Amino acid sequence: MTDINWTEVLTAYDESQAEVIKIALAEEGIPCTIENAHQGGFTGVFQARVLVPEDYAAAAKKLLDAHQQK
């Protein structure tokens, strides 16, 4: 089994934003996971890291940058 080196491409401060980003990345064939997706209920502050495999980081950042410019 191959270990995946996950890398952060974005920190989200809203759970729905993190989920939308995850879906957008998946639609482009980019695997994605969200770290700390449910911590907001425990701490009162939501902050989740959107992670992709290291090999997909450049493509993910390019996609995210293109959407931020709109």
TrEMBL record:
Name of the protein: DUF2007 domain-containing protein
InterPro entries membership: DUF2007, N-reg_PII-like_a/b
Domain of life according to the entry: Bacteria
Pfam families in the cross-refs: DUF2007 (PF09413)
DUF2007 domain location: 6-65
Annotated organism of origin: Blastopirellula marina DSM 3645
